[in-house]
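Teaching soon. Got one?

===
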Amino acid sequence: MKHIKLSVWTRLLLVICGIGLFTVLFTPIWRIDLDAPQYPEGLRLNIHANGIRGNVDIINGLNHYIGMKTLHNEDFFEFTILPYCISFFGALFIVVALINRKKWFYSSFFLFVAFGIIAMIDFWRWEYNYGHNLDPHAAIVVPGMAYQPPLIGFKQLLNFGAYSIPDFGGWIFIGAGALMLLGVVIEWKSTLKFKKAALLFAAMIILSLNSCKIEPQRITVGKDNCAFCKMTISDPRFGAEILTSTGRAFKFDDIHCMNEFVKSMQSDWKKNTTFYFTDYCSTHELVEASKSVLLKSAELKCPMDGHLAAFSSIDSLNIVKAIYHGDAITWEQL
């Protein structure tokens, strides 16, 4: 009987997956973020098991102008059946842990994978229909233009940057699939081989999570343009960057341009952003503004006459200050 029963670890993973899926009923599964200069704080659609929430009214208004259908929960049959599907798998995993049979476990695993594939295909179909079936009499018609958001990742749609990524519930789904796969590894491998496989699997999960971290983008001189003055960034010593909570980067050729850009935004916009300056010295790496110190000197020849340079340490600032006389200030003072 031992060869047809599940290990204790696999049964534990099944229970964890089952409980996790029930929490998905109360959390957003997917999110689509839209960033544009006129909406620097961003617009967001949160897709839950039973409907769409977020900045739906604003996005529907924008959709009307470009000929896209407006979004209404009652237009999607998926929101009627999805809560039942999620509850079914949550209950199934717990029942399989109680039944304690490998064939039930393998069947539930492959059924869950098939459900995930079908769900993503349906999501892509939904995005395709909304992005391509446009009203020819819309106020704004761009010949040959489609507005299908990316299935996952980033895509530029006119002046909007569209980000499509899993939300909290989506990561629970992915985690459940990963734990189920780990259970398959446990059942297929011997105890010694499993330990090696588990270590490799854990390393892969850690690497994948690290790859999803939102980090500043390196400024490419001669290629990137300033988000404020639109000039090509030409000097690596004076650059700056704003990184939003969705991962969108606004690059600048001068700290002065960044400052003017921030002044033009809504007062609470800074709450969802992180500021970076190019270190004047060394390899001109981006340093977070809160960890930088600035030198303000009329003798500094900056691209837009901002007369500001950033440094990662006060020691390096003092060295340059001896050449370009000025005052040391902080980003908050500026």
